[in-house]
Amino acid sequence: MSYARIIGTGSALPDRVLTNADLERMVDTNDEWIRTRTGIERRHIVSENETTADLAETAARRALDAAGVRPEELDLIIVGTTTPDYIFPNLGTLVQDRIGANGCAAVSCEAACAGFLYALGIAEKFIRVGESERVLVIGAETLSRFTDYTDRSTCVLFGDGAGAVVLAPDEKHGILRTQLYADGKYRDLLYFPSGVSRGFNDLKSGKDFVKMQGNEVFRVAVREFIRAAKNIFAATGMSPDELDWFVPHQANLRIIEAVAKRVGIPMDKVVVTIQEHGNTSAASVPLALDVAVRDGRIKPGQTLLFEAFGGGFTWGSALLRY
Ligand code: COA
Hints:
Layout: E1 3-12, E2 17-19, H1 20-24, H2 31-38, E3 42-44, H3 52-67, E4 76-80, H4 91-99, E5 105-109, H5 115-128, E6 135-142, H6 152-155, E7 160-170, E8 174-182, E9 190-191, E10 211-212, H7 214-236, E11 245-248, H8 253-263, H9 274-277, H10 284-294, E12 303-310, E13 314-321
Parallel strand pairs: 4-5, 4-6, 11-12
Antiparallel strand pairs: 1-7, 2-3, 6-7, 8-13, 9-10, 12-13
Coenzyme A binds near residues 113 and 251.
């Protein structure tokens, strides 16, 4: 069986930037609190007419260019997102039609901030069993659409963006292992209360907002990130010393630092983009990956660890040779 190898990466960010200073004018917060409690300095926010599909399309095109793969060569597209343009048609099909990959399988995967890791774990299996040859995996979000910009405990955290990778079979290098987890008993700690079947809470405006008990999420996220990292090293017989880069979900710099310390990964081997992007949910890992690939830090043959954690809770990890 072949490995599924990442042969191209891409990302996209909206032009509009929301800084901590901007937020100081909107809610009772300050730059010092946001930077020291989260590590975030700015985040990108879509304009009124921009949607998740726009960001996903741009990231996809850039990943395909980097991979040297034509859209018509794709046989599967999976998009991790919790902020799709529509309930259906799914975001995968919107991207598929825009880039001209019509006919291949296309679907989106809803696992909150772990959406990209789940999509990657699924895509990788299609390649391993020989069912797919060229797969596009995307994480794309417009979290600003369900962020309450009067709630200082959440609005400082989230940003919009997209990241994408193209996978292809490779005999030598690729994804060594993915491990996915979920525990639905934590559903009330981080959730979006509206849905087609349950209806919308605020019928007047048709708007609803993300709800989060931040410090509880923080506690479980740190614990499970550490456990997931230890599990994947044990499952592959590798050790943190062999790692070149840790590319974690960018939710809070303090979470990243606590996990890196406990797992035994020095911070100079951690890709940190949270200061620029905030928490972009399913987009965060592929966005950080693309930044570090394009600035030359991540090189072919290096060993990488991805981890993400989000509402549900859902979480997961991937260990790979890039
Ligand atoms: N500016 C200023 N003060 C703020 C604030 C803000 N933006 N947000 C909260 N505070 C205040 C609180 O009101 C509280 O004040 P009090 O002590 O007077 O009651 C104080 O800061 C501490 O609040 P707390 O929620 O305990 O802070 P924290 O250190 O846990 O940091 C988060 C809050 C949200 C940054 C942190 O819990 C976190 O990042 N959690 C994980 C979130 C996450 O990862 N979510 C996504 C998972 S994918």
